Amino acid sequence: MSRLLSSSIARKIAMALSGLFLMVFLLQHFLINITSVFSEAMFNEISHFMGSNPLVQFALQPVLIFGVIFHFVMGFALEMQNRKARSVGYVQFKGNTNSSWMSRNMIYSGGVVLLFLILHFYDFWVPEITYKYVEFLPEDPSRYYEELVHKFHDPIRVGLYVLSFVFLSLHLLHGFSSSFQSVGANNKYTRCLKSFGTAYAIIVPLGFAFIALFHHLNTL
Amino acid sequence: MAVLDSKIPEGPLADKWTQHKNNIDLVNPANKRSIDVIVVGTGLSGGSAAATLAELGYNVKSFCFQDSPRRAHSIAAQGGINAAKNYQGDGDSIYRLFYDTVKGGDYRSREANVYRLAEVSANIIDQCVAQGVPFARDYGGLLNNRSFGGVLVSRTFYAKGQTGQQLLLGAYSAMNRQIGRGKIKMYNRHEMLDIVKVDGKARGIIARNLVTGEIERHSAHAVVIASGGYGNVFFLSTNAMGSNVSAAWKIHKKGAYFANPCFTQIHPTCIPVSGEDQSKLTLMSESLRNDGRIWVPKNEKDALAIREGKLKPTELPEDQRDYFLERRYPAFGNLVPRDVASRAAKERCDAGFGVNATGEAVYLDFADAITRYGKEQAHVKGLDEDDASLIEKLGKDIIKSKYGNLFQMYEKIIDQNPYETPMMIYPAVHYTMGGVWVDYNLMTTIPGCFAIGEANFSDHGANRLGASALMQGLADGYFVLPYTIGDYLSDDIRTGPISTDTSEFEQAEKEVRDQLNAFLNANGTHPVDYYHKKLGKIMWNKCGMSRNEKDLKSAIKEIQELRDDFYKNVRVPGTADSFNEELAKAGRVADFLELGELFAKDALDRFESCGGHFREESQTPEGEALRDDKNYTFVSAWEYKGKPSDAVLHKEELTYDNIELKTRSYK
Amino acid sequence: MKLTLKIWRQKNATEKGSMVTYPIDNISPDMSFLEMIDALNNMLILRNEEPVAFDHDCREGICGMCSMFINGEAHGPDRNVTTCQLHMRKFKDGDTITIEPFRAKAFPVIRDLVVDRSSFDRIQQAGGFVSVNTSGNTQDANAIPIEKNKADLAFDAAACIGCGACVATCKNSSAMLFVGAKVSQYALLPQGKVEATQRVQNMVAQMDLEGFGNCTNTGACEVECPKGISLENIARMNREYLSASLKG
User: Fold this and answer.
1) ipTM for the whole complex
2) Quick count: other Cβ atoms within 10 Å of Cβ A74?
3) Mean pLDDT of chain B
4) What is the pLDDT of residue C248?
5) Is residue B661 part of a domain?
6) Are B610 and B108 in contact (CB under 8 A)?
7) Residue C154 C-alpha, separation from nearest chain B C-alpha, in angstroms
8) Which of A39, A75, B444, B529 is the most exposed place for a label (fewest CB within 10 A)?
């Protein structure tokens, strides 16, 4: 395994796999959140399950956190390495004639998403962990919806969230198909997959933005 | 005759090579480890020879002037490689390939060598396939063939229009394997500037590191020259810019005879010259003549109107066109051999019927083929055979699938769409059949110095057939030289390492340094290219597609004058101890300026027309080439005596025991 | 045509280089890009200046030696061509043209526009071959039928001319397209399968050692490749590498 991670292709595959994992998580996160738009009870119920199930809490949650950290650390390490691979730069470089902005700027879109995650953890994850494991407050299966709605009251926060979702979308627009290419899946299904990836990269972040705006506007 | 011993083995033609292999001396594997061989050039012959010699166990030092062995100009060959495999079951055989090659060479090649070439040809394909060369295949998964160059069987193997590149990459991969094993030491960006002889034997070379300018001494027990042909003596040719005669010429000056320098192949289907600044010519595969029809206007005034841009070729009605190859050679039509097609095109252009701005181009028209294929497709698909635009579309698709890459290349260079308007083509220098004289063992007249591939003279006579150059290069390198060199080296097993600290190396190095300094110090008024272009003009106008005594004599004089002027007035900037392409070019052009003279001298001496060499004094009343078998069935091998004009001619008489000499007729 | 050329000049590998501006006149639109540089060089020689060093050889787009980064793109603005096949008609009278060497740590500059691409050779030496003797004692060429589709794909991969435009154009200076094409050619053919595991591992290891960057699938290499080598070859190499690693 250590040999696997020492080569460029191995790191690239690891990036792709962690990315794919995060995309699965993202979809799951989205599906749970969207329930908040039409059913407070359902949202509370699922949230309560996720928040109290030991498997989710003590197995999946650490894995997820590891996945996020791994993806970012590896991403930054690769970026540093890639920059070193060209010690003298070009005077003129027309990247836009042969590749998309998204593909060339994953480090920036990813960086914005990282900043967002810090905010997001501060908003939800830190209070949640404090609630459950620091202050050991009594469990209330109906508190989740209220907390959610409460957070989206602040227009600045909503603005930051929506902006972040735009960058998330840009990141996914390249990341989705790129991860399949990295693990070696490039075949007759690739065109389909690319269309699906584009749809995913637009719909999921758009959905998140919609949820944030929905709750913000609903409480006005 | 005493000086030239071709060492052709005794016995029946078909057994000569096998018997020879059985009888020559071998070097045992342990001894091979203490023998060094230098190979200059990494094309098909040099690359394959270096790989094979290294695999046998010799220590090989390989040299190329490019930045990687993979760039040698063999890579540019498009069409294919011949082999007597008879996979198509159309009656091909070793004998037939042998026969076609000797006949195609207009009976000026050595029977035994050509037979051996045909014999090993089949093995080349096996070898290349085993190396992973992606030859074209049919739907059954077996190798595909096409027919080529007017022969009667389909024996040409190909990899789209990149056969040369794929074969070279095969040889390069075999080299890489040996470089990885440490058996080949590769010297990229190095140019051989002289050979070093010790006690009359080739024992090393002086090379210049083209990056640092350093002059290096390299010793070996044998030196193999695989540096290709000298077509660039014409300045404009289909050769690469760096292709040069220097390695071959340097050994010539040290004692290797130079054979048949005037045998040059001029290829009919090249993209015409567009202007004074043009640096090279681009060839388009001969296969285009399978479907294209060659013509010029019937009337000179139409030709003039086309040249001035007042008339479009597509507007000229059918009965105003002169399909001159079909007219002159009804039996073979557009598929006559290269030399015949080239001369016919030149004849028309000289008579004033040329069709580009300079009047040096003829049309190659695919309109008929497009219609023919279109109709065929419409019929096959059951579509309307009278719908002209549909026919045109279907036909263009077929042409595209067959020649798409060539059409694209043409459009990039000329900026005209060849699907809509006929292509313009003109003959260009392409290959040189002449080269360093070698015996049956591929050894030159310098003991221990071998010449292989296009650099030697042996197999193609006065004219090479299409798809035979790749075959010869690989045959020499993979299957001939590795055996025959052992016979020579078997005497060297006790020699031990050869020191470079000897007076011979010192002397050779000094001569090289003196020449480089002479170029740098001339500090004249003209860049090297100026002289190269001038030489090219003389060669093309007076030693080109047709030659006569008066022009050849004046060419010799002009080249001598140009050479004197070159040494006095060339300007080479920079220094000798740095990357200096102008300096490298100066050395190459200096050698071309000497070779050019010998070329003209040889052409003057050969008072007959054969193959690529057409003497105006020797033609039939209809203007066809007239060979003189009685007086000229020999190889002209020239010995250097201080300067080209003093070169001494030695004749190797050619005997044909297995083949009857006939006049080539394509009428 | 009248042009302004901005060209990278660097005396040798160790000295610092800089962009130098040269005005040039009387350029015909029918000239190739390299013929335009020839004209510049002859002008410089007559002015007693050193000509611009650049790599070139066959000038018909197959040897892979020419290597300029023109106006921000490898081999210039045209597609599916090498620099030697680029013609001046692709530019306009009065244009300013920026000409730089291919840039990558693994392609150090030798002089002016000439770079050292021997890293590509070393990658090939690490495994870009089939270990078959060149003795000629091989089985008959038609003994192994190869599916036409596979043979064609192998050919498409083998069409790579090793010019290095993929590396030059990649924002990460990655050599994955080049190595992917080589690995693919052999992986697709039965002759190459025997050594496939070792080959891909050795070639990738050498590629990493040479200091090329990592592939981030921007696809720029495929667009700029003069021979149109497909990204599928990179995916195939990734697959080959994955399965080789799992085999151990």
Assistant:
1) 0.97
2) 17
3) 94
4) 67
5) no
6) yes
7) 6
8) A39
